[in-house]
Amino acid sequence: QVQLVESGGGLVQAGGSLRLSCAASGRTFSSYAVGWFRQAPGKEREFVAAITRSGEVTYYADSVKGRFTISRDNAKNTVYLQMNSLKPEDTAVYYCAAGERGFTTLRGYDFWGQGTQVTVSS
Questions:
Q1: Span 104-121, mean pLDDT?
Q2: What would the 3-class secondary structure string for 2-63 be?
Q3: Measured between alpha carbons, how far is 29 from 99 in angstroms, rounded to an integer?
Q4: Is the pLDDT of residue 102 over 90?
Q5: CA 96, CA 49: separation in Å to the nearest integer?
Q6: For 115, left (φ over 0), alpha (ψ -120 to 50), or beta?
Q7: Nearest-angstrom CA–CA distance, 23 and 13
Q8: Which of 44, 65, 77, 116 has its CB surrounded by the most CB atoms within 10 Å?
């Protein structure tokens, strides 16, 4: 089992930045790919970014490419999502997830955090 706890969400104005953290405990964190997903009210959960076990390969949704950066520190069992140039449409609950398969779909992940709210005001 892997336990995931997100932090770093909050209220920010459009154009601002936030850095989300996903802290993991339990089994060896470096054995898992990690992804960030988000869910806005009334919408389905959608892929945002993912990173492989080693951190060498990353994936991004087109909507965040060039604005968001995912990274990981396996020594600290933590994955980060740096979000710059935030837009009101980025408002959502952001979830991190870990899994052996990873990539860009929900079914690639076995463990999920509780989420952290990000609100971007216009």
A1: 96
A2: EEEEEECCEEEECCCCEEEEEEEEECCHHHCEEEEEEECCCCCCEEEEEECCCCCCEEECCC
A3: 10
A4: no
A5: 9
A6: left
A7: 26
A8: 116
Residues with Cβ < 8 Å from 80, sequence gap 6 or more?
19, 20, 21, 22, 70, 71, 72, 73
Residue partners of 25: CB distance under 8 A and separation at least 6: 2, 3, 5, 77
Angle at 47 between CA 24 and CA 30, to 5 degrees: 30
- The one-character DSSP state at 120 is E
Q: How far apart are CA 41 and CA 22, in angstroms?
A: 22
Q: In degrees rounded to 5, what are phi and psi of residue 12?
A: -145, 150
- Count of residues making up the chain: 122
